Amino acid sequence: MVAAAVWDHLGGMPGMRMMLDTLATLGEGGRQLRNRYCFQPMMQPGEMKRTFVAQGLLGVTESQLMIRMDYQSFDDLWAPIAAGEGPLGKFVASLDAAERARADAAVRDAYQAGRPDGPRSFANVAWACRGIVP
Fold it and tell me: What is the DSSP-derived secondary structure letter of residue 122?
């Protein structure tokens, strides 16, 4: 059996999209990051299944996996990114001090959505696929 899973960055990770969409409004670098991040290989519905079938696997099935990601506050969400984790963190780390402050404030505003800082929960979807080697 061959199996794989990948996050649905385009439509299945609303917390991540909130951050990417916010950064995209701040400049071209954010727009480019969003375009790269949301359209990576195997993230579109059916794409991984088609690839498995094209590779000759049998009995290929695709499904969605959903989990919730819970955050206690904006800082809980933002700390790994502010520390440079992942593509989003690397992008934020590349910003000069003024751009970084602007990005931090804009994403904080999006997270808070006009409400006090505090817990938030985001449902997140991954595409999963499996097939049998003949």
Answer: E
